[in-house]
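Q: I have 194 residues here and want to know how they pack in 3D. Can you give me a structure?
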Amino acid sequence: MDTESGVALLTDRAIDAFGRIDLIVSTIGGAPYPLSFDTISEAQLLETIRLNTWPAIALIRAAMARGLGDNGGSVVTISSGSPHKTTSAMVAYASAKAALNAMTRTIAADLAGQGVRVNAVSPGLVRTTATRSIWEGDAGAAAGAALPLGRLTEADDIAAAVCFFLSDDARQITGITMDVDGGNHLSRGWTPIR
């Protein structure tokens, strides 16, 4: 199924279940090619950028066509701390998430007149099944100790930031990217362990 068909199905199901669309969280993304600039191909770079940007655009457009702007609304994209860093193997992913951040700001400006807020949450290293190899040996103690706040970010920390952006508490906030990373964005490079 292509992206447009997928988001059409998703928005149809949301309308069927809830009667309207008020809130969107776009979580599609990833780093399928963790390669340095001198080994990554053009196709791999472009696919990484597409994966991290196009699904969000398609979802927002489909939701707008189905009435997202009718009663205002809120959109949250999930970015990454990678654009702050210079991790060689993440050149494509960092570029893609930087593009997503710029896209988020631009769409926020485009939709502000319709009362739709668009923001991004930028996680750092999060304790999930996908990062298990980094934290499982010591339950994340070393990775957390390497962060300025001294603990590994949990999925609930990301969810709380997303919920804030979706809520009326954030009714005057649009076009920003919020780092939720235990202060990791304050350091150079990227490593879970110092």
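Q: Anything worth noting?
A: The chain has a mean pLDDT of 92. The longest strand covers residues 116-123.
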